[in-house]
């Protein structure tokens, strides 16, 4: 099997490249990345071939997808705040870029696995979030992911493209960058705590998140690629284990042996209050999946820093 990973030099993509290196049945891995948030250094230790380029380059995508059996489409402008700063740029990469990937897969017949996001649900009091819930994105990022997901489903039904749209929740682990304005909560907290600085909590910290360790995500993506798993509807990729941000601070303090100081700032525009996945669809498609528990995943993450 030959795999094309768009966004392959990013956090999840590089972890997937490393996992697939030497994986039985995998003959070649190509990472297509414009290195806007990813980096070539992330691919050290993997035998993936890095092609520096953009998913907005149709001829390049066509050429790469023609040589792939499965495309794992991770390339995106991630982050809610980034999309608030420049909604059109998020649309261009996340929605139009996904159209390009779909067209390339339509031409080649490649299986497509899409990284959508829990942000498509928006703010709803209903937890856990089941895939049948109405989608009401709060941010341009969520809207762009919903558009990508809708087009992916439409290509599945209209053209018989084999697709698997997965709604990632909060993924964390090694290679997730800290130290920039759009850093995700776990690397931002670990980085601050290790430097002896207060961690910045948005709002009261009682908002909840459903965290999934990246090792669990890449094992599942590899399994999906090898078994060519498809779904005619979006599938949550998380395990329903939500915790509050305040509790997360406590857990990180326990691992470091010292509770970090906290600094509270106003809640962020576009952030949802509670996030927890229903995972019955996921476990139906992946009955043997065995997620890494949060405590273990946090220890691996802290060890990586
Ligand atoms: P990331 O920023 O580390 O990876 C995205 C990669 O895409 C980067 O390497 C970036 O350089 C690349 N990229 C951006 N624009 C590109 C373009 N035009 N052409 C080619 N490459 C481009 O982010 P990540 O956390 O690894 O996220 C991977 C995917 O998972 C994204 O689609 C993201 O929206 C989705 N997702 C992630 C999370 C999470 O918690 N990390 C949650 C929900 C959804």
Please summarize what this structure is.
This protein is α/β, with parallel strands linked by helices and 305 residues long. The protein has helices at 11-20, 58-66, 80-85, 87-108, 140-159, 185-194, 214-227, 245-256, 280-285, 294-304; strands at residues 2-6, 28-33, 49-52, 70-73, 111-117, 163-168, 170-172, 199-202, 208-213, 235-237, 242-244, 262-265.
Secondary-structure topology with pairs:
Blueprint: E1 2-6, H1 11-20, E2 28-33, E3 49-52, H2 58-66, E4 70-73, H3 80-85, H4 87-108, E5 111-117, H5 140-159, E6 163-168, E7 170-172, H6 185-194, E8 199-202, E9 208-213, H7 214-227, E10 235-237, E11 242-244, H8 245-256, E12 262-265, H9 280-285, H10 294-304
Parallel strand pairs: 1-2, 1-4, 2-3, 4-5, 5-6, 6-10, 7-9, 8-12
Antiparallel strand pairs: 9-11
Helix pairs in contact: 1-7, 2-4, 4-5, 6-8, 8-10
The structure holds nicotinamide-adenine-dinucleotide (NAD).
Describe the structure.
The protein has 305 residues and is an alpha/beta fold. It has a domain at 2-169 and 214-237: NAD(P)-binding Rossmann-like Domain (Rossmann fold), CATH 3.40.50. The chain has ten helices and twelve strands. A seven-stranded parallel beta sheet has the order 3-2-1-4-5-6-10, sandwiched between helices. A three-stranded mixed beta sheet has the order 7-9-11. Helix 5 links the parallel strand 5 (111-117) and strand 6 (163-168). The longest helix is centred in the first third of the chain and has 22 residues, at 87-108. The chain is globular, with a radius of gyration of 18 Å. Residues 6-7, 9-13, 32-38, 54-56, 74-78, 93, 97, 115, 117, 168, 170-171, 184 line the site of nicotinamide-adenine-dinucleotide.
């Amino acid at each position: 099997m030959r795999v094309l990973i768009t966004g392959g030099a990013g956090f999840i993509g590089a972890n997937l490249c490393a996992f697939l290196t030497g994986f039985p049945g995998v003959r070649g891995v190509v990472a297509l990345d414009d290195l806007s948030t990813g980096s070539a250094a992330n691919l050290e230790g993997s035998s993936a071939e890095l092609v520096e380029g953009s998913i907005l380059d149709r001829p390049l995508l066509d050429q790469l997808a023609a040589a792939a059996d499965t495309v794992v489409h991770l390339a995106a402008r991630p982050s809610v705040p980034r999309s608030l700063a420049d909604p059109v740029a998020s649309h261009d990469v996340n929605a139009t870029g996904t159209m390009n990937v779909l067209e390339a897969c339509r031409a080649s017949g490649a299986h497509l696995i899409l990284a959508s996001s829990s942000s498509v649900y928006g703010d709803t009091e209903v937890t856990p979030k089941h895939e049948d819930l109405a989608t009401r994105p709060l941010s341009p990022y969520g809207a762009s992911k919903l558009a990508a997901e809708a087009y992916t489903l439409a290509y599945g039904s209209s053209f018989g493209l084999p697709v698997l749209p997965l709604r990632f929740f909060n993924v964390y682990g090694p290679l997730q960058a800290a130290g920039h304005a759009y850093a995700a909560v776990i690397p931002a907290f670990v980085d601050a705590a290790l430097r002896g600085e207060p961690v910045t909590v948005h709002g009261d910290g009682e908002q909840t998140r459903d965290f999934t360790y990246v090792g669990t995500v890449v094992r599942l993506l590899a399994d999906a690629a090898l078994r060519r798993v498809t779904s005619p509807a979006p599938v949550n990729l998380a395990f329903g284990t939500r915790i509050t941000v305040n509790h997360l601070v406590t857990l990180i303090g326990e691992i470091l042996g010292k509770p970090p100081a906290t600094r509270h700032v106003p809640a962020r525009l576009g952030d949802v209050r509670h996030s927890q996945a229903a995972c019955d669809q996921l476990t139906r498609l992946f009955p043997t999946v065995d997620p890494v528990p949060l405590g273990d995943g946090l220890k691996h993450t802290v060890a990586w820093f």
